[in-house]
Design a protein that fits this description.
- It contains ten helices and no strands.
- With 192 residues, it is mainly alpha-helical.
- It has two domains: 54 residues, Arc Repressor Mutant, subunit A (Orthogonal Bundle), CATH 1.10.10.60; 137 residues, Tetracycline Repressor, domain 2, CATH 1.10.357.
- α1 crosses α2, α4 packs parallel to α8 and α8 crosses α9.
- The longest helix is centred in the N-terminal third of the chain and has 26 residues.
- The protein starts with a helix and ends with a helix.
């Protein structure tokens, strides 16, 4: 067996652990889920689970890092762009796509807010939000336009976290939230 095959199989196990753990964390809550339950759901020994992750925090941090890498890349890209309406629209579009790809993680964050405040990933999330707000905000515009820009970002979060239970396809909800967020940015830009 080649080393790339071994690596891929090990990566698949890691991914399965992350998926099952995140599923349990959303279902039962982070605090109420044990490593033993994760191992049982995976039908592996606790020792096999420990081979990949020593703690629940190790699992959730790895999920967070994997699913949010595109957000780090988005922020780096956006900081190198001129602060035009097109750039801001692209920031919203890419951020919305990243949220869609990491929907299970965002559900975890919504359902486990107290845990999020205690974990290191909570601080990272706060930093991102501050950076994204600054990238979207109309720097010298009136306060109402600055509120529109910040609201655009939180509209995406509302679409992901608070509208997940409305009837319809989650992708349609994500796109509807993106449309409203884009309208807010556009309105702020045209008013400036």
């Amino acid at each position: 067996m080649s080393s790339s095959t071994t690596q891929r199989r090990r990566g698949d196990t890691r991914q399965r652990i992350q998926d099952v753990a995140l599923e349990l964390f959303v279902e039962q809550g982070y605090e109420k889920t044990s490593l033993r339950e994760i191992a049982e759901r995976l039908e592996v020994t606790k020792a096999a689970l420990y081979y990949h992750f020593k703690t629940k925090e190790d699992i959730i941090v790895s999920v967070f890092e994997d699913l949010t890498r595109p957000i780090d890349e988005l922020i780096a890209w956006a900081e190198a762009q001129p602060p035009t309406l097109e750039t801001k629209r692209e920031v919203l579009r890419r951020y919305s796509e990243s949220m869609g790809a990491g929907a299970s993680l965002f559900r975890f964050m919504q359902e486990n807010q107290a845990t999020m405040r205690e974990l290191t990933i909570g601080e990272t999330m706060k930093d991102w939000m501050s950076q994204l707000v600054e990238l979207l905000r109309t720097q010298d515009g009136p306060l109402t336009d600055q509120v529109r820009c910040v609201s655009a970002l939180f509209t995406l979060h509302a679409g992901m976290m608070y509208l997940q239970h409305v009837d319809g396809d989650p992708e349609e909800t994500r796109l509807a939230a993106l449309e409203v967020a884009t309208d807010l940015i556009t309105q702020a830009h045209h008013a400036a």
